[in-house]
Amino acid sequence: MYAECRDQRRPVHVPAAPARRARRADAERNRAAIIEAAGVVFAEQGCAVDVREIARRSGVGMGTLYRHFPTKDDLLATVMEREFTSWLTAAHEAAAATEDPWEALTGFFEQTLANQAHNRALVETYTATGTPARECARHRDAFIDELRIRCVDAGLLRDGVTTADLVLLSTSLSQAVQAADDSRPGQWRRLLRISLDGLSSRNTEPLPESAPHAGAAT
Fold first, then answer.
1. How many angstroms separate the CA atoms of 39 and 76, rounded?
2. Distance of CA 155 to the CA centre of its chain
3. Fewer beta carbons within 10 Å, N or C terminal of the chain?
4. What's the CA gap between 166 and 172, in Å, rounded?
5. What averages of pLDDT result for each successive group of 10 residues across the chain (218 residues)?
């Protein structure tokens, strides 16, 4: 009798827990599918792509897509952060596995631009904003500074080259990827070689001084 009463008093919502877990799992799968498809579509077609194409490739309805990402900008930001994190992780691993500091630095530029040459949205985003999100940019700049210091310590980098110089060079070459790759695929590789030659310690001519920021005291 006690067992029967205990069963009767069992909360009625308990059997629904597996169904809720299943719904959460379905939602996570849908979100992952959307992000995966968006990464491919943004890379192929750029930021102006119609989100209906992303929904179609991910196999979800528009309502599901908008529940996870209310705007295309939300989805784009998520995808770009994922792309950036993946790229920076790979760049760290490659640099750590490269003993020669100069090869580590040049390999970073090669990897960066090769990645961007196959991702229209990534280049368009950086061209429009000049930089990735603030936290992403901070991690990127710290990594570039590590590469610079390795080259300086080995006597391989031209005197006066700063981390800011290398960041700006990376950004400028990223724009060159977008400008040249449609009409002249691979042109960025020539520009990269020219730029890297200018960074070498073989060049002993002093670099021009940087202009002060606008509004700076004189």
1. 8
2. 30
3. C
4. 10
5. 46 57 81 94 90 94 94 92 89 95 95 84 70 76 96 96 92 76 73 92 86 51
- Contacts of range 72-75, beta carbons closer than 8 Å, 24 or more positions apart: 75/34, 75/35, 75/38, 75/51
Tens digit of each residue's pLDDT (9 = 90 or more) over 54-63: 999 999 999 9
| Token pair 């021009």: residue | 208
What is the token pair recorded at 202?
A: 């073989």
CA dihedral 78, 84, 89, 90 (to 10 degrees): 120
Beta-bridge partners for 200: 157
> Who's near 191: CB < 8 A, 6+ residues apart?
173, 176, 180
Beta bridge partners of 157: 200
Residues in the chain: 218
Q: Give the long-range contacts of residues 59-68, CB within 8 A, separation 24 or more.
A: 59/33, 60/30, 60/33, 60/34, 64/30, 64/34, 65/34, 68/27, 68/30, 68/31, 68/34
Strand segments (E) across the chain? none
Q: List the one residue out of 191, 153, 197 whose CA is nearest residue 174.
A: 191
Question: Can you give the pTM of this predicted structure?
Answer: 0.74
Cβ atoms of 65 and 54 closer than 8 Å: yes
d(CA 132, CA 116): 13
